[in-house]
């Protein structure tokens, strides 16, 4: 039975010994002699050394190796987090990452034609995959892509002299959509979904006005359902001179099968760390693209790679909103997606969509009739990349919540699904298996969930105790967040212990 | 396609369909209207998968299209080359870290959370600021977030930035500021390349939201009166923000000692490759003040205990974030640069308090050496000031020199304007490399005046 490593590893500040070092700084004595001292005026000098620990190389390596063993990634087991697309990250990507490693972003373009060729191809490929005219890779992650997209819409309308200050957002949307719209200065208006889990067309029409700048939507939506009325939605939007924005977090299930551009979307962002297998890095770095069709493509963030006279060069679109990140986006990760796409080929990309959708629906079949968890919405429609269950009945009948279920899953050697999202679903459990989990793993996951459900009905207290097999049991969130105990750094801990810091109020 | 190493279920399709109760995969897509279906193959890469060997050959071809440089480039402007100890690469190459997700489930993610907490904590010591988040994208976008945070705090729209700040970062700031209608205004530098205190004073008023300064600035020049920025903000109730290079703090006075509200920067120089511009890792820190902490963007890891009273870590203050607060969130940021933050933590742990001081001194020493040598060869002084790591010299015919250098496999500095060249010299540039750079400059420099 699975049991997570538990090293009881102390904080790095509590390790090591005075005078130890993990790295020799190369000191050139000849230069030092020639240059002399002091190198910095007294006024600008630090008065005492930073209070960071002193360790040998092995101590550092062992410490972080132990910490890594108390972490859980896709290489350890299934990570069925909904809307996160935690697929396997092929190891060939590790070779690809060396492509950009030693290149400085401000090198003479003539000296970096190889990497620019890769970026050029990726711009092109992602435009083809999304059905857009042009893509910019300048955005370092999905949310940054969203921000770019809504800023483009804002600038586009401003230049057309249109007062459009409202952004529509589906009530099943990722939380980043309203947050991005708000950062771009839009008023956010939510469009509710109907009992089929799809955009309510009447609600949409009644919210549409001349003030509507756009509608942020993901398709398939976060319930894993394809918005079958998408052409009507896009027609309604375009009639009001409003634009349709595609949140590409959920592209995995329709890759090569249907393209946002053909559905009427005008602006699209993609998370390369989801659909295109960039590893998530414990929260990042990711990589992303922002793509657009028609006139609005002139507003993409720059610089982009262009080709002319056999040379690649950086250039910004004519009406660009400017830079979203300092240089060209997360190139070190874009090259990983490049290798991933090469390894699949266009026929393999379509297989990704087919097999991820197959995996989701297979899991649904294996979970048929599970007590306490009901499909949301409760219908037979095929799901795409992901599926959402509601634990409403379970909590009512046993007191076991979606969170309890998640913790019990951890005890069985899987990461937990996304829970309490989307907010329109009570006690939501959102599962995205991806195409890379073998059938037997899906079987084992379904069996685990069934066991948990059975236990919830026979011995709910047992489930509520979980997790028991992880490095830690449930953590005290009240203490973690309380003004008098909140501890964001060791410095705060130290200052609090010596009575030199007040409560955070 | 019968099999593929990344698609295990290709050979189980039939039994899986049977379990579902449908005839074909096609039926699972029956709800997609025919009008939006793609009726042809995607035109991407090759049609068929490439093997790992074929991919590696192709990647080799890409690398051969880049010019192979003899030495690390003498380039700055937002990133400088530094040596990365193999221990850093080895640890962040552990897939328990790099294939994991944001630690939403703390019980099974203690190691990842602790590593991020240690990153926050070591950066906090370096900055002498109390609260650091688990990373932002990069310095430029972090500056954008700092401005938006200041606006949320005081509702004012004017952001004062130095004309001597990194130009790319200022461009990013202007993009991020546009949404909220913030106005970015620059204050000038003086003949020494340092803050023009008179101009700053003229521009400070009660409608200023934030004043930003960089130490060292875009020219590499060490500002000698950043405290004037803190004083100015206090007079008008604005937010003070400083951008710093973390390694330089091995020797330079930390932001906390000056009393800055916000400190930002980039952890790139702490164990993160140049990566052709990214991923890097934006540093975001504030001092211990509830108003600042609660308006801070990004994820923060904190220390607590579990139900058995054992020390534990978890994401904290999450009510600021997009998934909880949606349009009222402090930022839309979700994916950050955690793995890069861990690299920085490892680098700091390897260096230790004395190592980082030595590294900063070595950078100072080598950049100073290169600067003096170039002047000796006929380069002109642009700003007669102390500097760190980067410096400017005037070389009127640099365009020609640059081409000559490049054809000899050396990437020199880069012109900020015609004849004004910015160089970056760090611990990776040995005396021999610097001497060769300088002698090649000397061979063809045209000395004017």
Walk me through the structure.
The complex is a heterodimer of chains A (505) and B (449). Chain A has 505 residues and is an alpha/beta fold. The mean pLDDT of chain A is 97. In chain A, helix 9 links the parallel strand 4 (212-217) and strand 5 (243-247). Chain A has helices spanning 29-35, 57-69, 92-96, 98-101, 113-130, 142-159, 176-183, 201-207, 230-239, 331-366, 392-398, 402-410, 439-458, 460-465, 477-481, 490-497; strands at 134-136, 166-170, 187-191, 212-217, 243-247, 267-271, 288-292, 304-308, 311-315, 374-376, 387-390, 418-419, 428-431. In chain A, helix 6 packs across helix 7 (176-183). The two termini of chain A are 46 Å apart. With 449 residues, chain B is of the alpha/beta class. Chain B has 3 domains: 8-65, no CATH class; 86-347, Type I PLP-dependent aspartate aminotransferase-like (Major domain) (Aspartate Aminotransferase, domain 2), CATH 3.40.640.10; 353-444, Aspartate Aminotransferase, domain 1, CATH 3.90.1150. In chain B, the strands form 3 sheets. Chain B has a 7-stranded mixed β-sheet with strand order 1-7-6-5-4-2-3, sandwiched between helices. Chain B is globular. The relative contact order of chain B is 0.14.
Quick gist of this model?
The complex is a heterodimer of chains A (505) and B (449). With 505 residues, chain A is an alpha/beta fold.
Keywords:
heterodimer, A: 505 residues, alpha/beta, Aspartate Aminotransferase, domain 2, seven-stranded mixed β-sheet, four-stranded antiparallel β-sheet, 13 strands, globular, B: 449 residues, Aspartate Aminotransferase, domain 1, 15 helices
Which second-level CATH architecture of the domain at 93-343 in chain A applies? 3-Layer(aba) Sandwich
Number of strands of chain B: 13
Mind telling me the CATH superfamily name of the domain at 93-343 in chain A? Type I PLP-dependent aspartate aminotransferase-like (Major domain)
Going by helix content, strand content and strand pairing, the class of chain B is alpha/beta
Fraction of residues in helix of chain A: 25-40%
CATH architecture heading of the largest domain in chain B: 3-Layer(aba) Sandwich
Q: Low-confidence segments of chain A, ≥5 residues, pLDDT <50? A: none
What is the succession of H and E elements of chain A?
A: HHHHHEHEHEHEHEEEEEHEEHHEEHHHH
**Tally the helices of chain B: what do you get?**
15
> SSE order of chain B, as H and E?
HHHHHEHEHEHEHEHEEHEEHHEEHEEH
């Amino acid at each position: 039975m699975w049991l997570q490593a538990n090293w009881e590893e102390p904080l790095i500040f509590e390790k090591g010994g005075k005078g130890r070092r993990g790295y020799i700084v190369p000191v050139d004595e000849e230069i030092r002699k020639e240059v002399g001292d002091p190198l910095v005026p007294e006024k600008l000098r630090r008065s005492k050394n930073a209070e960071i620990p002193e360790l040998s190389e092995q101590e550092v390596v062992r410490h972080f190796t132990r910490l890594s063993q108390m972490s859980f990634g896709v290489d350890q087991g299934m990570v069925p987090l909904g809307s996160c697309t935690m697929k396997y990250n092929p190891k060939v990507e590790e070779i690809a990452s060396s492509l950009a490693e030693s290149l400085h972003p401000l090198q003479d373009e003539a000296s970096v034609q190889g990497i620019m060729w890769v970026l050029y191809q990726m711009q092109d490929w992602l435009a083809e995959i999304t059905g857009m005219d042009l893509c910019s890779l300048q955005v370092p992650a999905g949310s940054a892509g969203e921000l770019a997209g809504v800023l483009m819409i804002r600038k586009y309308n401003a230049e057309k002299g249109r007062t459009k200050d409202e952004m529509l957002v589906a009530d099943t949307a990722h939380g980043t959509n309203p947050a991005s719209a708000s950062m771009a200065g839009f008023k956010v208006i939510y469009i509710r979904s109907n009992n089929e889990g799809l955009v309510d067309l009447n609600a949409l029409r009644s919210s549409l006005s001349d003030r509507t700048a756009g509608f942020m939507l993901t398709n398939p939506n976060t319930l894993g359902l394809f918005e079958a009325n998408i052409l009507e939605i896009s027609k309604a939007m375009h009639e009001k001179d409003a634009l349709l924005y595609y949140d590409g977090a959920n592209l995995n299930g329709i890759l090569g099968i249907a393209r946002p551009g053909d559905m009427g979307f005008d602006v699209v962002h993609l998370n390369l760390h989801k659909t295109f297998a960039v590893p998530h890095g414990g929260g990042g770095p990711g990589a992303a693209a922002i793509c657009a069709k028609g006139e609005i493509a002139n507003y993409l963030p720059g610089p982009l790679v262009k080709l002319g006279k056999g040379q690649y060069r950086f250039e910004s679109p004519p009406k660009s909103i400017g830079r979203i990140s300092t240089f060209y986006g997360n190139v070190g990760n874009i090259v990983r997606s490049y290798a991933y796409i090469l390894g699949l080929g266009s026929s393999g990309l379509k297989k990704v969509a087919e097999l991820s959708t197959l995996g989701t629906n297979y899991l649904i079949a294996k979970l048929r009739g599970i007590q306490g968890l009901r499909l949301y919405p409760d219908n037979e429609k095929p799901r795409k990349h992901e599926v959402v269950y509601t634990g409403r009945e379970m909590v009512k009948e046993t007191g076991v919540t979606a969170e309890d279920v998640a913790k019990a899953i951890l005890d069985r050697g899987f990461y937990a699904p996304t829970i309490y999202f989307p907010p329109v679903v009570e006690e939501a459990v959102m599962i995205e298996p991806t195409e890379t989990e073998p059938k037997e793993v899906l079987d084992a996951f379904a069996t685990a969930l069934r066991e948990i459900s059975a236990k919830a009905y026979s011995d709910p207290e047992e489930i509520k105790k979980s997790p028991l097999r992880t490095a830690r049991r449930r953590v005290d969130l009240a203490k973690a967040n309380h003004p008098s105990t909140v501890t964001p750094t060791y410095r705060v801990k130290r200052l609090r212990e010596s009575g030199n810091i007040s409560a955070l109020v | 396609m019968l099999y593929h190493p990344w698609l295990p279920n290709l050979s189980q399709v039939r039994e899986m369909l049977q379990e579902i109760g449908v005839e074909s995969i096609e039926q699972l897509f029956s709800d997609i209207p025919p009008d939006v279906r793609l009726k042809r193959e995607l035109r991407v890469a090759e049609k068929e998968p490439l093997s790992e060997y074929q991919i590696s050959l192709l990647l080799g071809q890409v690398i051969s299209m880049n010019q192979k440089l003899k030495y690390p480039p003498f380039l700055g402007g937002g990133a400088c080359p530094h040596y990365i100890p193999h221990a850093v690469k080895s640890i962040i190459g552990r897939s328990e870290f790099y294939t994991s997700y944001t630690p939403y489930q703390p019980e099974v993610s203690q190691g990842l959370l602790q590593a991020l907490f240690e990153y926050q904590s070591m950066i906090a010591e370096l900055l002498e600021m109390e609260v650091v988040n688990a990373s932002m994208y990069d310095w430029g976008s972090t500056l954008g977030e700092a401005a938006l945070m200041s606006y949320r705090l005081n509702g004012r729209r004017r952001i004062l930035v130095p004309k001597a700040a990194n130009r790319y970062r200022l461009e990013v700031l202007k993009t991020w500021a546009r949404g909220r209608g913030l106005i970015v205004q620059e204050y000038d530098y003086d003949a020494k390349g340092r803050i023009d205190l008179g101009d700053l004073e003229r521009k400070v008023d009660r409608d200023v939201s934030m004043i930003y300064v960089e130490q060292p600035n875009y020219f590499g020049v060490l500002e000698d009166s950043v405290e004037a920025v803190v004083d100015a903000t206090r007079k008008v109730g604005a937010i003070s923000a400083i951008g710093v290079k973390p390694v330089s703090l091995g020797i330079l006075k930390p932001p906390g000692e000056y009393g800055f509200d916000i400190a930002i920067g980039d952890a790139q120089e702490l164990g993160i490759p140049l990566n052709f511009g990214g991923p890097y890792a934006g540093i975001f820190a504030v001092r211990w003040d509830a108003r600042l902490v609660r308006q801070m963007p990004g994820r923060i890891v904190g220390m607590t205990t579990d139900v058995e009273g054992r020390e534990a870590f978890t994401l904290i203050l999450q009510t600021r974030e997009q998934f909880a607060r949606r349009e009222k969130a402090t930022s839309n940021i979700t994916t950050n640069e955690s793995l890069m933050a861990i690299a920085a933590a490892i680098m700091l742990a390897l260096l230790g308090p004395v190592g980082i001081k030595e590294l900063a001194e070595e950078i100072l020493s080598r950049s100073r050496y290169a600067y003096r040598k170039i002047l000796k060869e006929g380069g002109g002084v642009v700003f007669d000031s102390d500097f760190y790591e980067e410096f400017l010299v005037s070389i009127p015919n640099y365009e020609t020199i640059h081409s000559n250098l490049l054809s000899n496999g050396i990437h020199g500095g880069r012109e900020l304007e015609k004849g004004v060249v910015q160089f970056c010299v760090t611990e990776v540039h040995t005396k021999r490399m610097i001497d060769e750079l300088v002698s090649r400059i000397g061979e063809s420099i045209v000395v004017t005046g």
